[in-house]
């Protein structure tokens, strides 16, 4: 079995590494004092007095640093002193790199925002697209090409758009689009635009221009996207939360780019609506569905792992249901490929073309039974029967007919709004978000380059926070050089994920708006359903206790025990005894 991540056990076996790590993290959070490591102290603290402490604290008011810890006879002395502190801090950081580099995170870990035990879950529900079925990059290219051609053939857009091909690494999920200004951007959890990630067409917008347009970098609540990320009722921002939206964002950017390059005057609102309609037609007209069905091996992947998860749940007596917006023929073809022709035997209820998120709120739509050949029946539905296929309906009727309520139900989906938000806020279901991008980002975070850059970035930030009190010109010159270095590293940590928009989860140090919604609406999240294979069905997921800003960080409590690099069998034994 694979190991889970963050090898705290390695640190516990290495006293000196653990001491250095504690000292380093304490130092970064210190405001007005100095932490030092007592290298002669025993591993276990006892009552022998201060000398036995692993880490000791010396209270030094910041105002006294210039008088006691630093020569003040000349500007040259101040400059030399600051650079000596800088070099000492950098050396300490470099000494820690080998230790921190071993703290890799396993991409197959399930992460918890809220404590949840699988022992309490009796019923498992699933979306289909990007939850049970994962698609290759060929699908996004297909959607982009078809929608582009629809714009040209049916909306009379210029033939020159055919020069643009799909760019798989241009955008990321979770971006906001200002419909009236035709700007694509990343916004953080506090509604601030991440400067440097605002794009008009395929080109970045200068920071000064962004600040002038928005009178700063904050986006007021009244123009942000609505609850479901849509631009409606006066909201001018649209948030793209669906994985299927990647080709839509790319097409918007390409058309904007073409118009700008050729000095064509256009109305951004019309462009947005036309692209949205063209992308919708790819789905509604069944063009995408027919293409996937015709060459399913080209477009669908991860089939064996999905099948293994469903078998595991079925073997353990769990009830399962499927609620998807996709049509039955498309789902049936895909599930035959992933699971086999008997896939419906695994599910107690199957609902297609559900029209989520309306399914979770609109009480008016009744269920309608569908035959295997797609014929709609007119009889009233009194029971949701295993082996039958149902269309539309609504969650309130679903709850009445099944009695599946509250925290005994766990539903998985990839769309944080359409799949998860209403279920957790209104109905108390437990929710699991499938975030395929997570696996790639974790692998990047495990690289030596990222670990080295991020560790020094954190250390330098702590140094700046403490040394900013030195306001004389010589000191400020040094500090400005540190600020410039920090900005360069911040850009590097952005570009390492995506050159245009950075990480899906962070805008530099702040969480993204996407991360904020993810933490609110998903009890657990993971790259794919296959991660469930690494846990028994008695497992309890515990969220990491992240220190609040006013709390002292207590390492190792910051480490997610669910992600520790402990052999999996050992992990199971430990959690089973909790």
UniProtKB/TrEMBL annotation:
GMP binds at residue 129. The active site is at residues 127, 129. Binds 1 Mg(2+) ion per subunit. Its cofactor is Mg(2+). Keywords: Hydrolase, Magnesium, Metal-binding. It comes from the Eukaryota. It holds the Pfam family 5_nucleotid. InterPro entries: HAD-like_sf (IPR036412), HAD-SF_hydro_IG_5-nucl (IPR008380), HAD_sf (IPR023214), Pur_nucleotidase (IPR016695). The keyword Hydrolase applies. CDD domains: HAD_cN-II. One of its GO terms (molecular function) is metal ion binding. The keyword Nucleotide-binding does not apply. Residues 559-578 are annotated as: Disordered. Mg(2+) binds at residues 127, 414. Signal peptide: none annotated. Belongs to the 5'(3')-deoxyribonucleotidase family. This is 5'-nucleotidase domain containing 3. The gene is LOC107679628.
């Amino acid at each position: 079995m694979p190991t889970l991540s963050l090898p705290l056990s390695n640190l516990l076996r290495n006293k000196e590494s653990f001491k250095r790590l504690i000292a380093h993290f304490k130092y970064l959070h210190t405001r007005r004092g100095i932490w030092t490591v007592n290298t002669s102290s025993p591993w276990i603290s006892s009552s022998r007095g201060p000398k036995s402490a692993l880490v000791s604290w010396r209270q030094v008011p910041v105002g006294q640093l210039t008088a006691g810890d630093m020569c003040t006879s000349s500007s040259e002395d101040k400059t030399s002193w600051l650079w000596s502190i800088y070099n000492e801090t950098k050396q300490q950081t470099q000494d820690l790199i080998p230790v921190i580099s071993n703290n890799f995170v396993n991409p197959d870990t399930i992460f918890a925002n809220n404590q949840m035990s699988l022992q309490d879950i009796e019923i498992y529900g699933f979306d289909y697209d990007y939850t049970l079925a994962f698609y290759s990059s060929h699908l996004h290219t297909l959607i982009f090409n078809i929608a582009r051609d629809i714009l040209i053939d049916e909306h009379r857009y210029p033939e020159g758009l055919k020069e643009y091909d799909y760019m798989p690494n241009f955008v990321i999920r979770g971006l906001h689009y200002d419909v009236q200004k035709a700007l694509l951007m990343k916004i953080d959890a506090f509604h601030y635009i991440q400067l440097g990630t605002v794009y008009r067409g395929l080109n970045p917008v200068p920071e000064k221009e962004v600040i002038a347009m928005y009178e700063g970098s904050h986006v007021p609540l009244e123009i942000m996207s609505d609850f479901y990320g849509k631009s409606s009722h006066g909201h001018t921002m649209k948030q793209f939360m669906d994985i299927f939206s990647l080709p839509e964002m790319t097409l918007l950017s390409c058309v904007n780019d073409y118009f700008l390059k050729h000095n064509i005057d256009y109305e951004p609102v019309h462009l947005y609506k036309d692209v949205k309609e063209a992308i919708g037609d790819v789905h509604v007209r069944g063009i995408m569905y027919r293409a996937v069905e015709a060459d399913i091996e080209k477009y669908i992947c991860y089939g064996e792992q999905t099948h293994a998860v469903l078998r595991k749940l079925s073997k353990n007596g769990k009830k399962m249901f499927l609620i998807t917006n996709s049509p039955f023929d498309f789902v049936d073809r895909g599930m035959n490929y992933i699971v086999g022709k008997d896939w419906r035997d695994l599910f107690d209820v199957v609902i297609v073309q559900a029209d989520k998120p309306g399914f979770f709120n609109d009480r008016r739509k009744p269920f309608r039974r569908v035959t295997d050949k797609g014929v709609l029946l007119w009889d009233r539905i009194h029971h949701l029967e295993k082996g039958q296929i149902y269309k539309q309906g609504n969650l309130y009727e679903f709850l009445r007919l099944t009695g599946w309520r509250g925290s005994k139900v766990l539903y998985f989906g990839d769309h944080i709004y359409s799949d998860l938000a209403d279920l957790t806020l209104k109905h108390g279901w437990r929710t699991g978000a499938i975030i395929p991008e997570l696996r790639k980002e974790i692998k990047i975070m495990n690289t030596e380059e990222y670990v080295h850059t991020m560790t020094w970035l954190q250390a330098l930030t702590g140094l700046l926070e403490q040394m900013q009190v030195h306001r004389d010109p010589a000191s400020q010159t040094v500090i400005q050089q540190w600020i410039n270095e920090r900005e360069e590293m911040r850009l590097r940590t952005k570009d390492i994920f995506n050159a245009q928009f950075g990480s899906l989860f962070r805008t530099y140090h702040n969480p993204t708006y996407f991360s904020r919604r993810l933490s609110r609406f998903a009890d657990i999240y993971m790259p794919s359903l296959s991660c469930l294979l690494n846990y028994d069905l008695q497992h309890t997921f515990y969220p990491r206790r992240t220190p609040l800003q006013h709390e002292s960080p207590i390492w190792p409590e910051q480490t997610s025990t669910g992600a520790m690099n402990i052999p999996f069998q050992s992990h199971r034994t430990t959690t089973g005894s909790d």
